[in-house]
Specification:
about 120 residues, alpha/beta, globular
Length: about 120
């Protein structure tokens, strides 16, 4: 299965999500850092499972999961199981969604994470 893994940050979203506007903010943060991403719809419901599956499908070992309540989490495959590096509710501030995406890209690039609001 190694050959099928993508060289991108994988974003696994629950299949019940219809409004992608908040998810677009996550992708903008990734794009700003110049890293590719792929969005996959999944039947998984648990945030930790979505994030873990996303990281396992990424050759970069970085994945974001987003559940049907717009809770989002960043996971890195080399971390302990079920250890979500960043967890955010995307329903409050769009900047938080963008920062989550940027931090996923920062992890790939090996540069410092951004603080809330996009500054370092």
């Amino acid at each position: 299965m190694e050959n099928q893994r993508k060289v991108s940050i994988m974003i696994y979203i629950n299949e019940n999500i219809k409004d992608l506007r908040k998810i677009e903010e996550v992708t903008y943060g990734i794009e700003e850092e110049g890293i590719p991403y792929t969005i996959v719809r999944s039947k998984e419901k648990l945030l930790v499972d979505l994030a873990t599956l996303a990281s396992m499908e990424s050759k970069l070992d970085v994945g974001i999961g987003i559940d049907e309540n717009f809770n989002a989490a960043l996971y890195y495959a080399k971390l302990p199981e079920d250890y979500l590096l960043f967890k955010r509710e995307l329903t409050y501030r769009l900047e938080d969604a963008r920062t989550l995406g940027a931090n996923a890209a920062c992890m790939v690039k090996g540069v410092p994470f951004k603080m809330e609001g996009g500054s370092q």
